[in-house]
Amino acid sequence: MRIISSVSEMQSYADSLRKEGMTIGFVPTMGALHEGHLSLLKKSIETSDKTILSIFVNPAQFSPSEDFGKYPKDFERDEKMAEELGVDIIFYPAKEAIYPNGYSTYTIVEGLSDRLEGKSRPSHFKGVTTVVNKLFNIVKPHIAFFGQKDAQQALIIKRMITDLNMDIDVVICPTIREDDGLALSSRNSFLSPEARKEAAFIHQALKEAESLHLNGDQNSEILIPKITDTLNSAPIARIDYVAIVDSETLLPIESTKQGALVAVAVFFDTTRLIDNILLTAVK
Ligand code: AMP
User: Fold this and answer.
1) What is the per-residue pLDDT for 283?
2) Catalytic site residue from 34, 37, 124, 203
3) pLDDT, tens digit only, all 283 positions of the chain
4) Alpha-carbon span 275 to 283, nearest angstrom
5) What is the C-alpha to C-alpha distance for residues 57 and 161, in angstroms, rounded to an integer?
6) How far, in Å, CA of 97 to CA of 11, rounded?
7) Which atom of ligand 1 is nearest to the CA of 175?
8) How many Å lie between the centroid of ligand 1 and the Cα of residue 36?
9) I want to staple 220 with a disulfide (CB 3.0 to 4.6 A). Which of 15, 67, 171, 244 is the partner?
10) Does 215 lie in the same domain as 75?
11) Can you tell me which atom of ligand 1 is nearest the CA of 176?
């Protein structure tokens, strides 16, 4: 496994792989790898000739009040996990390599970026799309892998790829969960033991909404309070939002009958967790 930190070295290496006719699979991450990240990497290894993992905690997607400074980092552990899995290259740039002095270009996907997460984290997706666009230009992938855990992010990146005529396929991989349903996240390590226990209510609330939907309760005005009640049974939980939206536009919908994305963001102490479930259309 090769570790590359230089942008120009990564670009030349990607060029040489492409010249040899290899397909490049790409998994962008912020590191602190867990089974969720590994599931994306496994999928890439299965379907591409070479798999490139990037590890970059992107300052541009954190607001000044967020957890950029304390975001978990353990490169040695990540390196070992990636090597054992069969990753070919880790692209591990310094902040200055991505945002050198004088940096002033941003990529914005309008509309989608302002909804759900965008309301709570106004410049978050501007940071995400900017860095992912840059990483695509550096890593030159044929296929990029993203998690359904960050459903809005995946949708926005697909929109960017379409709108900017990028020749990249996107594969969205299912959310990997703990036994009690909590979606794996690097931020789970911030949870106190009590908060960790209570965080299982997130998936429970989403699954309850799914059963209600499947059993005939498809009115968002009924479902949202039910989800809210279940989340509130966790004393530490502080709800940021509970939303039932169209899974393509992310705009609120009144009924889940034709399918929906149910998305939540909940604080446990200062740790903000997000999760979602896709409801399929019912007859
Ligand atoms: P992050 O390092 O949090 O930026 O995540 C990198 C990629 O891993 C993104 O495409 C995430 O959606 C994906 N990911 C994070 N957590 C999970 C999970 N529990 N299951 C599946 N994919 C995940």
Assistant:
1) 85
2) 37
3) 999 999 999 999 999 999 999 999 999 999 999 999 999 999 999 999 999 999 999 999 999 999 899 999 999 999 999 999 999 999 999 999 999 999 999 999 999 999 999 999 999 999 999 999 999 999 999 999 999 999 999 999 999 999 999 999 999 999 999 999 999 999 999 999 999 999 999 999 999 999 999 999 999 999 999 999 999 999 999 999 999 999 999 999 999 999 999 999 999 999 999 999 999 999 8
4) 26
5) 22
6) 13
7) 20
8) 6
9) 244
10) no
11) 20
Q: How far is CA 149 from the centre of its chain?
A: 6
Atom of ligand 1 minimally distant from the CA of 185: 16
Closest C-alpha to 260, from 205, 202, 219: 219
Q: Are residues 78 and 127 in the same domain?
A: yes
Q: Are 17 and 147 contained in the same domain?
A: yes
Asked if 37 is an active-site residue, the reply is yes
Q: Are residues 89 and 198 in the same domain?
A: no
Do 82 and 218 reside in the same domain of the chain? no
Query: Could you say which of 173, 203, 230 is where a domain stops?
Result: 173
Burial readout 169-203 (b: 16 or more C-beta within 10 A, e: otherwise):
ebbbbebbbbeebbbbbbbbebbeeebbebbbbbb
| Contact by Cβ (8 Å): 183, 275 | yes
Q: How far is CA 67 from the centre of its chain?
A: 16
Q: Are 30 and 186 in contact (CB under 8 A)?
A: yes
Segments forming the whole domain that contains residue 234 = 186-279
How far apart are alpha carbons 110 and 176 in whole angstroms? 29
Ligand 1 lining (C-beta closer than 6 Å): 29-30, 36-37, 39-40, 146-147, 149-150, 173, 175-176, 183-186
pTM score: 0.98
